[in-house]
Each structure stands twice: as C-alpha cells, then as structure tokens.
Amino acid sequence: MRILIAADRRKAAVGLRSGLRRRGYEAECFSDEEKALEIALGGGYDLLLLDIVESENRNILLRNLRHRGSMLPVLFLTRRGMVEDKIIGLDSGADDYLTRPFGWEELAGRIDNLIDWRRQSRKQRLSYGDIFLDIITQDLCRGDICIRLGFKEYEMMKCMIQHSGQICPKKMLWARVWGPEGVNSYNNVEVYISFLRKKLAYLKTKVRIRTMRNRGYRLEVRGDPPPLVMAADEQDGG
Fold it and tell me: How far apart are CA 49 and CA 55, in angstroms?
C-alpha cells in the first residue's frame, strides 16, 4: 500500500514516514502542500495522510483535491478536543480523522479500513481501458480523478462500455437514452457524444469515442485495434 503524507512540519512528516515504513507501507512525505496536491492528483497512491497543523491550509488542500475530481481516501490528524476542526475537515472532503496522540496500530487500522472501503466501492463499476464508470455515483473516472455525468451522458457511456468497444449504432444509443418511443432528434446523440468527449479529455484518458461514418460510435483505446463489430442489440441502425 502506498501512502502519501502531507505535513507542514518536516520533522513530523519524516517521523510518520519512518513509522509507516516500519509497518510495511510504502510512504513518501512532502512539506510543500502544493507539491503534495499535485502528486495526489497524479495518482499512484492508495491514501493521503494529512498532518497539517494550520487547519485552514489543510482544508484548502482538501477542497482543491475534491474540486478537481480526486476520490483518493484522505485521513487527517487533529488535536484532542478540536471538535469544530474535525467537522470542518470532514466537510472539506476528508474521509476520516485520528486524534493525537495515537497508537501506531490504531493509525494502521484506520488506513487499512479506508483503503479497503475504497476498494470495495470500486467493485460497483464498469471498466474500459484506463477509465471506469461508477454505477452508484454515476461518476466517470480515471484512477482517482472523477467527473460526474448527467443522466443521459451516464446511460450513453454505460451502453458503450457494456459493448466493449463494438460499434454502437446511433439508433441504439438514442433508444437507450430517450426510449424506443422517444421524440427527440437523432442529432441529440451527437450533442451528448460531444459532451462525453470533453469529459474524456478532462480525464486525460487514452480512451476516445470514434465516429464510424454511417455506422455509429465506438469506444477505443489509442494504439489498440478494436474489432469492427456491430453491437448485438441493434445491427441495422445508423
């Protein structure tokens, strides 16, 4: 398990890193909060541990992390009796807190529980390439970076992921989103495909939506040659 430590006191950060490494975790620490945020957003870690004494600085980091779409589990350390500080930290986007002084076994237990919780929640998802669609929250994610989809975007992306890169005719996507008796124009499919392309670009994923002229759309991973197969639901649509 890889733990990223952000602390505004270098000595405390090094102590946390050493203690976690002795217990079998891979841990790195940063006293520069902007650098820690950048690394957290880059992915590759299982949990962010915050030991920032200045609570406002900690909460700014948390809000920036969540505003930019990261779902990385976050545990922060706080002082005994600081009830309001704990509430604000949780409201800013942290998942849990631990009060100082603490035992190392308690810290390890909190870390393990948070990571396990996140892994269990990720089972409720559909994956393709380096992205996944959370079927509970309707978020489209790459690693820990997520963006919320609207209902129609979600249904359209779900349909394309379920067909594993096959060509999805426009008629099939239209029926899935607006229903077989829908009165909307087929052009609405093109509008929502455009919305999804922008969100894929935001996630900086290798997955793209390719237009197959007069046939429909399909998901593909750049560099991979997906099969030129029509989705089984509808093979006569355009």
Answer: 14
Q: How many residues are given for the chain?
A: 238
> Is residue 161 domain-shared with residue 189, that is, in the same domain?
yes
Domain co-membership, 24 together with 98: yes
pLDDT per residue over 147-206, tens digit each?
988 888 988 999 999 887 789 998 888 888 887 655 556 678 899 999 999 999 999 999
Three-state DSSP state, 199: helix
3-class secondary structure, 46: coil
CATH number, domain of 116, equals: 3.40.50.2300
pLDDT above 70: residue 227: no
Reported pTM: 0.63
Q: Is the pLDDT of residue 228 over 60?
A: no
Assess contact for 200 and 131: CB atoms under 8 A.
yes
- 111 and 138 share one domain: no
The CATH number linked to 180 is 1.10.10.10
Please state the φ and ψ torsions of residue 124, each to the nearest 5 degrees: -90, 65
Residues 95, 137, 37, CA angle at the centre, nearest 5°?
45
**Residue (of 72, 120, 108, 115) closest to 93 by Cα position:** 72
- For tokens 């997955």, name the residue: 207
